[in-house]
Amino acid sequence: MHTTLHWRRPAVAAAALLTMLTSGLSAAELKLRILETTDLHMNLLSWDYYQDKATTEYGLARTVTLIKAARAEAKNALLFDNGDLIQGSPLGDYVAKVKPLAAGQVHPAYKVLNTIGVDAANIGNHEFNYGLPFLRQAIAGAAFPYVNSNVYLADGDNDPANDKQAFTPYVILERTFTDEAGVKHPLKIGVIGFVPPQIMTWDQKNLTGKVTVRDIVESARRFVPEMKSQGAQIVIAIPHSGFEKGETVLFAENSVARLAEVPGVDAILFGHSHGEFPGRFFAGHPKVNLAKGTINGVPAVMPGRWGDHLGVIDLTLDNASGAWKVVDSRAEIRPITDRATRKPLVDADPQVAQLIEAEHAGTLAYVRGAVAQTAAPIISYFAQVADDPSVQIVSQAQLAYAKRALQGTEHEGLPLLSAAAPFKAGGRQGWNYYTDIPAGALAVRNVADLYIYPNTVKAVRIDGRTVREWIEMSAGQFKRIDPKGPAEQDLIEDNFRTYNFDTLDGVSYRIDVTQPARYDRDGKLIAPDARRVIDLRYNGQPVADDARFIVVTNNYRASGGGNFPGLDGKSIVLDAPDENREALVQYLQTAGRIDPSADNNWRIQPVPGVKLRFVSGAGGIAHLPRYPQIRLVKDNGDGSATYELVP
């Protein structure tokens, strides 16, 4: 049904013979270090292709420095990659689409991973994004084995008993390690991989009729005993899957909690959700020991994303019982950057840049080229006070992405809305900190002006009441205007975070700023009787409290970021690892030419007798002819200008 690989390195047989001659019958203690990279998404260099500049916050080139240091500290070490490797940055697109790999050419990811000595790797969900032929072509260049146990070839006979594996389900690595007394021992390490069953939805076009998928834990329960029977003395599970609280259902996307309960699993290297384990976020999870880095007693690690961390598990093995067993362990993640100071902790290994010099140069030329044409400038100077094209383009991209992702699901027929916020809106970042893209060629790197954060696409299923409260929370950006007060009043609350000013596309509404804010900036209900959101409608009809909607947003908001009422991570129905700005690039490339304009689905209700004023960048003055609802009051001469809304 499948092929089990026994992956030997040169001199293993000779080493085994040496062991027989040198080792005695006494018990031995052996320490084994396991290293993991995951979700690299083709960030092989510390280079931000969207902003077209170097970065210190991510990149495998810096992780390689950590890998070399970690290996130098240990007698015995193995290195694994957990997938989502070949897609996710413009470099990945360049190799797959712009200048596709030639027959027999080694993918740049494997130029690097082969050189740094990866022992085995798992297939992530994004490996399927370019289709099965490209995936097989790419991994053919790996000098190490790939594993996946829960994807099968589709034979169409509806008989799972005769299904064949699409990939090698597991391998048994045969290595020789040195114990604490200096004696060498052969060891067989079983390595098994898994991918989320949701690939059949996410990559329906590429996979339907070609493969089928089974449950992660079900696959582990089938194959781990088989691995043991094949001689595996230690079993390492590499699920491209996250870890969630609560009950994990069959075919769950994030199955690490249940996987840790499968007998025979000695260590878990996980990923997919771009989180960090052990880390504070997991403190409230059941069966977690953060100090040891274990889940249900099993050492586990998840080292973030894009090479910003290296996962390290240290196992202590003992053969006193006659067989090697894990008697102690500790897991940790090592960062490449100090988040508090934002200073790098390690330098990039120069060899990585040398290995992929040609591909990097080609990618730079690609991102500097146009992905679309814009018929008008795209700016964010007025995004806090009026429906704005810079925000609406993001919403349109999110809606297009979600429509594709939800096809064929139970959520497909529900009304679909999109939430987006102005990220570059001056404030503490200065009066030049605005999106200001001229008409004409729109390059890939310009996308960072529209979406500066590396968030990922999420969608939540909520009711009409929560939609209303979502907008009420956003409306806290405005100061309360006194209709009987001064004739000129400031509109914007300067302390409100602009990335929390979500506007919702797909519904129409007005904001009455004469009412007090219903919520404070931290999401606390402070005025229960206040209602700033008025005339909330969907397709021209008032939105009922019990109406059902899908709202596409980002991982930050969907999981509770900003403390928006009703959003705590429990209502997520689309948990896509794709970045919002990658969705934006796809949207622009598909459109080819855009004419950015707002549909004015929301507006601030005028206050008779009061001029609503706000301060923004002086760069907006040149664009006022396109904004008849905004008037210049004064150029302040410091890079800012005072404007007011025209009733």
Name the features:
single chain, 647 residues, alpha/beta, Purple Acid Phosphatase, chain A, domain 2, 5'-nucleotidase,  domain 2, nine-stranded mixed beta sheet, 16 helices
Q: Helices, strands, pairings?
A:
Elements: E1 5-8, H1 12-22, E2 29-37, E3 47-48, E4 53-54, H2 60-72, E5 77-81, H3 90-98, H4 108-116, E6 120-122, H5 132-139, E7 146-147, E8 151-153, E9 170-178, E10 184-194, H6 199-202, H7 204-207, E11 211-213, H8 216-229, E12 234-239, H9 256-259, E13 267-269, E14 276-277, E15 288-289, E16 294-295, E17 298-303, E18 309-318, E19 325-335, E20 337-338, E21 343-344, H10 350-355, H11 357-367, E22 370-374, E23 378-379, H12 389-406, E24 416-420, E25 436-437, E26 440-443, H13 447-450, E27 456-463, H14 464-474, E28 488-490, E29 503-505, E30 508-511, E31 533-538, E32 541-542, E33 548-554, H15 555-558, E34 572-579, H16 580-591, E35 593-594, E36 602-604, E37 611-617, E38 630-635, E39 640-645
Parallel strand pairs: 1-9, 2-5, 5-6, 6-7, 10-12, 12-13, 13-17, 22-35, 24-33, 28-37, 30-36
Antiparallel strand pairs: 2-18, 3-4, 8-11, 9-10, 14-17, 15-16, 16-17, 18-19, 20-21, 22-26, 23-25, 24-29, 27-33, 27-34, 30-31, 31-32, 37-39, 38-39
Helix pairs in contact: 3-11, 12-16
